[in-house]
Specification:
- A hairpin with a 3-residue loop joins strand 7 and strand 8.
- The two termini are 36 Å apart.
- The chain is mainly beta.
- The protein contains one helix and 15 strands.
- 9% of the residues lie in helices and 29% in strands.
- The strands form three sheets. Strands 1, 3, 4, 6, 9, 12, 13 and 15 form an eight-stranded antiparallel β-sheet that branches. A five-stranded antiparallel β-sheet has the order 2-5-14-7-8, with no helix packed on it.
- The longest helix has 23 residues.
């Protein structure tokens, strides 16, 4: 009890002292608004698409060790060839072993060159990047807006929640890049939403979503709603089209 009281007293003393310092500053001088620290940590940027020094590398073309099958948490069985990971038809989604909250995520992907020849045009190049296993950034063959699909299901949409501000798609067979900046939702003690999730997307260097407020868990049918959750995996969707991936890394924020 004495330690607790001392801690409270010390906290109050620091607060009062800081308040006094604010009123005692001479704001006609530049140093009054200068903060000495703490200094930001040093991060070395990646060169030529390489991850920055503090990134967690999720896929570098060498193995699938960071991933499991979503349906049973078993070994990832997607195809790995020439440094590229490709969806294996009939296997389903994969997800990271590690769980994440706020993050910066870099994903490079390629839609099959023959996507237009798909017997199911609405499945052409269909995949997705799910943040925290729930919030999908859509991957689709939307090159030149040629596919007759609803606008909020095109590439770069938060599926059925928002139409991206621009379509920056590379043509099928060429690589695309998603740089995702994600803020996880916050929940109150009773499970209600205190703050929703937000997402910013840069697609091939073009800002296509700007701090969009995610409306809840993705729904194919019905209205999205939030469900209580903690940190969760990054998931890649296996939707029938043989979409390929490379150079995936993440920075926890």
């Amino acid at each position: 009890m004495q330690k607790l009281l001392f801690s409270l007293f010390l906290l109050m003393y620091c607060f009062i002292t800081e308040a006094q310092n604010i009123f005692e500053k001479d704001y006609t001088k530049p140093e009054a608004t200068e903060v000495a620290g703490p200094l930001p940590k040093i991060v070395t940027p990646g060169i030529g698409g390489a991850p920055p020094s503090d990134a967690i590398v999720l896929f570098n073309g060498k193995d699938l060790d960071s991933w499991v099958m979503s349906k049973d948490q078993g070994r990832c069985v997607w195809n790995l060839k020439d440094g590229v990971m490709t969806f294996k038809p009939g296997t389903g989604d994969i997800q990271t072993k590690q769980k994440f909250g706020d993050c910066q995520l870099h994903v490079e992907f390629k839609i099959p060159a023959d996507a237009k020849n798909s017997t199911d045009r609405n499945n052409a190049g269909n995949s997705g990047v799910f943040m925290q296993e729930r919030y999908e950034v859509q991957i689709f063959d939307s090159y030149n807006n040629e596919t007759p699909l609803y606008a909020n299901g095109q590439i770069g949409s938060i599926y059925k929640q928002v139409i991206p501000m621009a379509n920056a798609s590379s043509k099928p067979g060429d690589w695309n890049t998603f740089d995702i900046y994600y803020t996880a939702p916050r929940f109150r003690y009773n499970g209600s939403v205190e703050k929703p999730a937000y997402i910013t997307l840069v697609h091939n260097g073009v800002l296509t979503l700007n701090h969009f407020e995610i409306q809840g868990t993705i729904k194919y049918i019905g209205i999205p709603r939030y469900e209580l959750h903690d940190k969760a995996a990054v998931k890649l969707q296996g939707h029938g089209s043989e979409v390929s991936f490379r150079n995936i890394w993440i920075r926890e924020l």
